[in-house]
Design goal:
8 helices; Rossmann fold; alpha/beta; about 10% strand; 4 strands; 4-stranded parallel beta sheet
């Protein structure tokens, strides 16, 4: 089963070396640049599809702009990643769907209803939308395992469950 890796802000900041955000995760599961790069390489070799939700792009940009040093250099590196994504040079993609398909009035009402509970659990509105993107991929494709690549245990807890494999004899024939 191929994997969709939803990239969270915490991991992208580590990857870019944003000052003050060079590591993420718990003491038992710490992510640094070397570990993040190694994971990206393994997942790329295995054919994973990397997705950058808009919330990740915006939040990462905010962290870069608020960094105490190297803002220009890191912003350039981030810009280079975005250009490579846009040109299809690296196996990353920006979450693409019709806006109305995911963010229609019903979905916005659902987010408005769910978010106060998530906020009380320290899940930001950005993370709530990342959770929604992960759920979208889980619902729309039975051929992908969806993982939220994050150092945030709170967000990781909302990762969609891995679908149970179906036996060949029970699969529908085309």
């Amino acid at each position: 089963m191929r994997k969709v890796l939803i990239i969270d802000t915490s991991i992208l900041c580590v990857y870019l070396g944003v000052p003050g955000k060079e590591t993420c995760g718990s003491d038992k599961d710490k992510w640094d640049k070397k570990r993040v790069e190694a994971r990206f390489q393994v997942e790329e070799k295995q054919g994973a599809k990397f997705i950058l939700p808009i919330a990740t792009i915006i939040e990462t940009g905010n962290h870069i702009a608020q960094a105490n040093s190297k803002r220009y250099e890191i912003a350039q590196a981030f810009g280079n990643i975005l250009v490579k994504v846009a040109d299809g040079v690296i196996p990353w993609g920006v979450f693409e769907t019709q806006v109305g398909e995911l963010w229609n009035s019903e979905q916005l009402k659902q987010l408005a209803t769910e978010w106060p509970t998530l906020a009380s659990r320290k899940i930001s509105i950005g993370d709530a939308t990342i959770k929604t993107v992960a759920e979208y991929y889980a619902k729309t494709s039975s051929t992908f395992q969806v993982e939220i690549f994050t150092g945030d245990g709170g967000l990781k807890a909302y990762e969609p469950a891995i679908p149970a494999p179906t036996r060949r004899s029970t699969r529908k024939k085309a």
